[in-house]
Design goal:
paralog of FGE (formylglycine-generating enzyme), single chain, 15% strand, four-stranded mixed β-sheet, alpha+beta
Length: 335
């Protein structure tokens, strides 16, 4: 992370700590909760008790407007705008070593759901400025979440803003909105009274997009109801980066109440590698919340407990982030 961004972050940190509400943040008091789920995917298990401390968290994912302000202030260049280094991608075809990113491209027919290459395409020129590839800017999408941001891009923005990325436990606690153990961020019914509560996929993924919720791709932040803590878009719209390395399962439940982990950090870099692609040696972080591509027939991860492994070098067209300020930060006075 370059020195200019860190210096700017230090200058903004005090202002953010003095007036987080003016920075579009929500105060989370913290406390104990049951993290994870045993009713869906194996990586969400086991359910285990943890405790998180108090923190502020962005009310919404970082938007294109907010990310543009950061880029204009610092001249920052995202990973998707830089040609990949051949030594980091052994065996890559030379013509593929050009700036770009993965863009969701729906097929015209039903396909094998085990083959993600049927709907993801590496588009040269795709980045946060051009979320759908060359010739298609993000004009008119100022209030949509920024996408095509790799982990270090999100980390750089957070440092510039005087903030940090949330841990998985912090993110999940905040996303639950006080509903400990509930299936969704708003309760146990996916569409209560037939109302769509988040931007997800309706129809048979990946070829049939009914867009019954009104949005075939990303949506402006705050287009759907907030959760119990006043946070928007914690479910659906875009996946969100967390600071934790990915692991295949959660840690086991603490045997005694006295041993409940406080402010846990999950996983380790070594165990985060994908065994099926270990030759690339690209570690993975946890992303949370699901996206507009999550569907009942594929990736039912539109829940606070859901988690997914995201390579740190890949932003993609459905991955974004939000930031936190922890009460333990020096000079911070929680309320």
């Amino acid at each position: 992370m370059n020195d200019e961004i860190q210096a700017a972050g230090q200058a903004l940190a005090q202002a953010n700590r003095e007036a987080p509400l003016q920075q579009g943040m929500v105060w989370i008091a913290g406390g104990p909760f049951r993290m994870g789920s045993e009713r869906h995917y194996p990586e969400e298990a086991p359910v285990h008790r943890v405790t998180v401390g108090p923190f502020w968290i962005d009310r919404t994912p970082v938007t294109n407007r907010e990310f543009r302000r950061f880029v204009e202030a610092t001249g920052y260049v995202t990973l998707a705008e830089v040609a990949p280094d051949a030594k980091d991608y052994p065996g890559a075809l030379p013509h593929m070593l050009r700036p770009g990113s993965l863009v969701f491209t729906p097929p015209g027919r039903a396909v094998d759901l085990n083959d993600w290459s049927q709907w993801w395409r590496f588009e040269f020129g795709a980045n946060w400025r051009r979320p759908y590839g060359r010739g298609r800017s993000n004009q008119g999408l100022d209030d949509h979440p920024v996408v095509h941001v790799a982990y270090k891009d999100a980390e750089a923005y957070a440092a510039w803003a005087g903030k940090e990325l949330p841990t998985e436990a912090e993110w999940e606690y905040a996303a639950r909105g006080g509903l400990d153990g509930a299936e969704f961020a708003w309760g146990d019914e996916f569409t209560p009274g037939g109302m769509h509560m988040a931007n997800t996929w309706q129809g048979a993924f990946p070829n049939e997009n009914l867009a019954a919720d009104g949005y075939p791709r990303t949506s402006p932040v705050q287009s759907f109801p907030a959760n119990g803590y006043g946070l928007f878009d914690v479910i659906g719209n875009v996946w969100e980066w967390t600071a934790d390395w990915y692991s295949a399962r959660h840690a086991a439940e603490a045997p005694k109440a006295c041993c409940i982990p406080e402010n846990p950090r999950g996983g380790g870099e070594r165990e985060s590698y994908d065994e099926c692609a270990s030759s690339l040696r690209i570690p993975r972080k946890v992303v949370k919340g699901g996206s507009h591509l999550c569907a009942p027939n594929y990736c039912r991860r539109y829940r606070p407990a859901a988690r997914h492994a995201q390579p740190v070098d890949s932003g993609m067209s459905h991955v974004g982030f939000r930031c936190v300020i922890r009460a333990s930060t020096e000079g911070f006075g929680g309320r």
